[in-house]
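Before a computer can learn anything about folding, someone has to put a protein's shape into writing. The outcome of that step, for a single protein, is printed below:
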Amino acid sequence: MSTKFDDLTTLCAKAKSLGASRAVPLSVDLIFTDPRVRLKCQVPICPNYGRNLMCPPNTITPAEFAEALAKYDAAIIVQFDVEPDGAMLEKIKGTPLTELEDHAAYKEVLSGPSKSMMEALANLEQEAGRMGYRFAAALAAGPCTLCDTCAGPTGPCRHPFSARPSMEAVGIDVIATADKAGVPIKYPAEGKVIWTGLLLVD
């Protein structure tokens, strides 16, 4: 009979087969939450705030998430590297962060990998479920990009089995958590984007 450690190792291997650059087991004690993370969704206000079903205030609150997190004991942190080419970086150079999400060149390079990441995390969650972990739950990175335009808070979601809120949306300090997991993220990003997701396993 396999142990939970064996299962986590198997899930890490599965994550890599789905395109992850890195996947490592993590104790939930090393998942850091901070209300300031959710604050940054509003200050300055993100263009997805209130508009994207997978973004605040349409998601579980940090307090609700912290209560649920306390019921888990293991997780997997999953990272996907995206390395934009020089031509793309030149196109978006000087673009304000508030306009970046709608920038054509940015969307062209990052929307495809973003969708692949979300689908991989949903598949990983389903794999954990098949292994018997009925409370397995995946969290993605950044706003959901599965649709060109989100159905919005009136819904319904067009991809309910693939769409996932981001770690940041529920109040996780991704930088601190990734650092403790041994897969640190440079902030601000230089040269490449590292999308970081999480699979809670129980």
In short: The radius of gyration is 16 Å.
